[in-house]
Design brief:
The protein is α/β, with parallel strands linked by helices and 715 residues long. 51% of the residues lie in helices and 11% in strands. Helix 16 runs antiparallel to helix 18 and helix 23 packs across helix 25.
Length: 715
């Protein structure tokens, strides 16, 4: 049976017209309380700072200002922060943990500290009461409590079915594996399950969409419940030795709002490591040595190999190696396309090449990750006899650690890793897109295991609860983190920052222009499965890492130079990596087979590769980019009026061109003349980046930038 057939089966007792008439919005949307996430806490802090420092009018914040009033952080009448808002702002400035910030607001509303209006107070308790009433009517909570606590997906799916009693009964009549398949659909699975344009599927598409809509409300309501529980039980557990246990329960099962059930769980957790039932694998120190420091010769050889593939500063590579040897795991942070994952793989294999290197097991984090995906956990499985058994599914950290050991009974011994005919000293883990996951939820337990040097996972073996294996002394985790916002690093979990060393990777500067062009063309040609005819017109000097200009096609070189200049100006706002340029030129080279006009190929490449990266860029920066690449940027700045309310924004763009791109001196004097409209014609001519050059014609790129500008203006 397919998921679609099972979904139809559980709703067979309902009339199709009845299903078709259902509203797509679900009542759980009532619980879209604003306090939902670390990101929201950061935004509340940001808005309060802006208003307190009078940077902008509160009205600019639109709906967010209304939400601040709902929380009592802003006054009901007027445009000022409330007494409670000012106290919260002071607390935010001192307290680094977003988790405690959320708790601070809820706790003070509950206790009615400060001058919190009755409206805010009643609003909060109304929501709490609604939550209590709602959770009390979930028909599966008591009968299948244990099952629900082990399976959050089932909690979600049975809640959605709660208003369909007959469907709920049919759902529980399905075998456990088919229930689990429905449980795991979530947003994308439900969205694509039925085609609303097919008459027979339309009613079920309506129901699936109703389930899909509740996914978002489910996450928000869960976080609100967690905040409520913490504020209500703060006094009981804050000084208790079970405080950590409680937080772990809330993190994994934030549904619980029943005090009796909560107390039972805490009591069951009183002995966290019972004398029986915990199997610890005996450590044998033989061959388990710390990560050695490569010799200068080995590091130099690794640098030579890395330079063949990546344009990266030597000191970045040596900084990563030094941190790894000192015992740190690494987060490589930087803009999109800077080669973060590639350099992590190359360092793992090449820096310790004398020992065989370390095989990099690469996984990509997702927003759905929990401890189960990272460490591991028990999952239900139906055997051939129809009986449900729990089996251990290893997470990526456990799996990569285990590949370094030979386990015999309770004894372990280090082993080599054999991959594709090569013998490696061991296995490391590379977690790509680290920031896609909820850091604390997914990696919280991992931080503890790293500190204690032992990895503990549940076991399905009879009479045993857990199994432990040691983490090899030379085992490392390297994470990559996409960000063009340096401030993002400061909002990450303190636990993460304490256990990982951060290394930032940036695109090459303009002083490396010729070398970057060489790398772009070299990599683009190497990564194609064939040799395009135009490649015969490109001559590269691999020793000097440059393009041999007097032996290469002038028209194609002009295209290369124009592309680089456009990208250089864009990088002053959005720091895109070399990989974007490589992707663009792979397309240009392939398109040259059917397109006799390289400018057209460049136009399409910019539209396809660069425009999607500019969605969060400001209107003023987009206008400057359009003027630089597609129009006349000198005329653009000439036409800016000093009386414009946005003149200060255009000043910033003017500085980017004159100071950062053209590298002009005496910048304050030039800026003052720009403000007074006293720039001479000779000066304007010196500011023209295309003087003596041919600017490409880019109608598609221009149209896409214009559409982005119009979208930004509507927001």
């Amino acid at each position: 049976m397919t998921d679609k057939q099972d979904f139809i089966y559980i709703f067979q007792d309902y009339d199709l017209k009845e299903l078709q008439a259902l509203p797509t919005r679900f009542k759980l949307l009532d619980f879209n309380f604003m306090i939902t996430s670390q990101r929201t806490m950061a935004r509340i802090h940001e808005k309060l700072e802006d208003i307190d420092q009078k940077k902008v009018s509160p009205k600019v914040h639109g709906n967010f200002w209304i939400d601040l009033r709902v929380l009592g952080l802003a006054k009901e009448d007027g445009d000022e922060i409330s007494q409670f808002g000012k106290a919260t702002l002071e607390y935010f400035r001192k307290e680094k943990s977003p988790f405690k910030r959320e708790h601070f607001i809820i706790s003070n509303i509950r206790k009615r500290n400060f001058d919190i209006s009755k409206k805010v107070y009643d609003n909060y308790f109304s929501k709490v009461e609604n939550l209590r009433n709602y959770l009390n009517v979930i028909p599966t909570l008591n009968q299948k409590g244990k099952e629900l606590l082990l399976n959050e997906e089932k909690i979600f799916f049975t809640e959605c079915l709660n208003t369909f009693p007959k469907a709920l009964n049919r759902y529980f009549s399905l075998p456990p594996d088919r229930q689990a398949a429905l449980d795991s659909l979530h947003e994308s699975g439900l969205k694509n399950l039925f085609d609303p344009n097919i008459p027979k599927e339309a009613p079920y598409a309506k129901v699936a969409r109703r389930f899909w809509n509740v996914c978002r409300a489910y996450v928000r309501r869960t976080n609100f419940i967690k905040s409520v529980i913490l504020s209500e039980y703060e006094e009981k557990v804050s000084k208790s030795k079970y405080h950590f246990i409680l937080l772990e329960i809330l993190s994994n099962h934030a549904k619980i709002l029943n005090e009796d059930l909560l107390i039972k769980i805490i009591k069951k957790s009183e002995v966290t490591q019972p004398a029986i039932g915990l199997k610890t694998i005996e450590e044998i120190p033989i061959d388990d040595k710390p990560l050695p420091m490569p010799s200068k010769e080995e590091i130099q050889e690794a640098l030579i190999e890395i330079r063949k593939l990546l344009l990266i500063e030597d000191n970045v590579v040596t900084q990563i190696i030094s941190n790894l040897v000192s015992g740190k795991n690494i987060i490589i942070a930087g803009p999109i396309g800077t080669g973060k994952t590639h350099v992590a793989i190359l360092i793992s294999k090449l820096a310790w090449k004398k020992e065989g290197g370390y095989y990099p097991e690469v996984v990509t984090a997702t927003a759905d990750w929990t401890t189960h995906e990272v460490i591991g956990g028990l999952y239900p499985k139906v055997d051939e006899g129809g009986n449900v058994k729990y089996v251990v599914q290893c997470g990526c950290v456990y799996d990569s650690v285990a590949r370094n050991w030979t386990i015999e009974g309770t004894r372990v011994q280090r082993k080599k890793a054999y991959v594709d005919g090569h013998e490696y000293e061991g296995v490391w883990l590379i977690i790509d897109e680290f920031n896609r996951a909820n850091i604390d939820r997914a990696f919280g337990e991992m931080f503890t295991t790293i500190e204690h040097g032992k990895l503990k996972v549940p076991t399905s073996k009879e009479g045993e609860y857990f199994e432990e294996i040691p983490i090899p002394k030379d085992y490392r985790i390297i994470g990559t983190l996409n960000t063009f916002d340096k401030h993002y690093l400061f909002r990450l979990s303190d636990a993460l920052k304490r256990r990982f060393a951060f290394v930032e990777l940036f695109p090459p500067g303009r002083d490396k222009a010729e070398e970057e062009k060489y790398y772009v063309l070299k990599r683009a040609l190497e990564e194609l499965a064939f040799k395009p005819p135009i490649s015969e017109k490109i001559v590269l000097d691999h020793e000097k890492k440059t393009i041999v200009r007097d032996k290469s096609d002038p028209s194609f070189l002009s295209l290369v130079d124009s592309t680089y200049e456009i990208m250089s100006f864009i990088r002053l706002t959005k720091n895109l990596g070399t990989a974007i340029l490589i992707s663009m030129f792979k397309f240009i080279l392939v398109d040259s087979l059917t397109n006799d006009h390289p400018e057209n190929s460049l136009d399409i490449a910019l539209k396809s590769n660069v425009v999607p990266q500019l969605e969060n860029v400001s209107k003023w920066s987009l206008e400057a980019m359009r003027a630089f690449a597609c129009e006349n940027i000198v005329d653009f700045f000439k036409n800016v009026s000093p009386d414009s309310v946005d003149f200060n924004k255009y000043e910033i763009e003017f500085l980017k061109l004159v100071q950062l791109y053209l590298n002009k001196g005496n910048i304050q004097d030039k800026l003052e003349r720009f403000r007074k409209k006293e720039v001479t014609d000779d000066e304007w001519r010196s500011y023209d980046p295309w003087a003596g050059k041919t600017r490409p014609t880019l109608p598609l790129f221009r149209r896409s930038l214009t559409e982005l500008i119009e979208e930004v203006q509507l927001i």
